[in-house]
Design a protein that fits this description.
The protein is 22% helix and 25% strand. With 64 residues, it is of the alpha+beta class. Bound molecules: zinc ion.
Length: 64
């Protein structure tokens, strides 16, 4: 059984910008080289928590 990657969140410690990245096999899609908000090239990456993902889905659904 293939291992499923957890969703990742990339975030900027400088300005608080963050973005969740959907797992696409072993490649991280859409990972920016630097923060689009403040230009900080030192973006942090962490796995999104399950709770966070669930909340995001609920928020998306509620918007429609
Ligand atoms: Zn930033």
């Amino acid at each position: 059984m293939p291992t499923k990657l957890p969703p990742l969140t990339t975030f900027c410690r400088q300005c608080g910008w963050k973005k969740s990245l959907p797992p696409m096999g072993d490649v991280i899609m859409g990972l920016p080289e630097r923060c689009p908000q403040c230009g900080n090239p030192d973006l942090q990456l962490k796995p999104s928590s399950l709770l966070e993902s669930a909340l995001r889905v609920l928020t998306e659904v509620a918007k429609k």
